[in-house]
Design a protein that fits this description.
This protein is mainly α. It has two domains: 67 residues, no CATH class; 100 residues, no CATH class. Helices cover 54% and strands 0% of the residues. The chain contains seven helices and no strands. Helix 1 packs antiparallel against helix 2 and helix 4 runs antiparallel to helix 7. It starts with a helix and ends with a helix. 25% of the residues are buried.
């Protein structure tokens, strides 16, 4: 089972995870197709039949995030890296906290660790990283938005938060 898990993670889960941040805000039909690929990979790993319910396997055995939460994880992790100066250089000026925005630095909400969300007029603009990253990050709990949290602590806490969010709402 460990060998099958490694192969599924290397070939299938990593391909589904590759560039999935561009899928933020797409229709549920698109993410459902990717979820079906992950479900088939999970069945392959544990040797379950097609008729077996796969959610408990994903949750309890493999501990894989659903596709929509994987997308949120990727966006939030990239935004965290950008805020702390370790992200891609082309995103350096895109992600900014409310405290760093001069016209908003004195607001009461500025000290909660929120990010500045620019206004947009179209649905397509809401899917851009400039808007998606602050939107996703502002929905995170306060302890994950703390400026003193390390990258490892953030990623572990983020996965736990998204995992609990995905499996308590089901």
């Amino acid at each position: 089972m460990d060998a099958r898990r490694t192969l599924a993670s290397a070939f299938i889960a990593s391909r589904v995870d590759y560039c999935n941040a561009v899928l933020y805000g797409v229709s549920a039909q698109v993410t459902c197709r990717l979820q079906m690929v992950l479900n088939a990979a999970a069945r392959l790993v544990v040797g379950a039949s097609r008729r077996d319910h796969i959610s408990p396997v994903l949750r309890d055995v493999l501990r894989w995030l659903p596709v929509t939460q994987q997308i949120q994880f990727k966006i939030a992790a990239t935004a965290f890296d950008c805020i702390h100066g370790t992200g891609p250089t082309y995103f350096k000026d895109i992600c900014s906290t409310v405290v760093d925005t001069p016209s908003r630095a004195n607001l009461r909400s500025a000290h909660r660790g929120g990010m500045f969300v620019p206004r947009t007029r179209t649905q397509l603009c809401r899917r851009s990283f400039r808007v998606a990253a602050p939107t996703v990050c502002n929905t995170l709990p306060l302890h994950l938005r703390s400026p003193s949290i390390s990258r490892g602590q953030f990623r572990a806490g983020l996965k736990t938060h998204l995992f609990n969010q995905a499996h308590t709402s089901v």
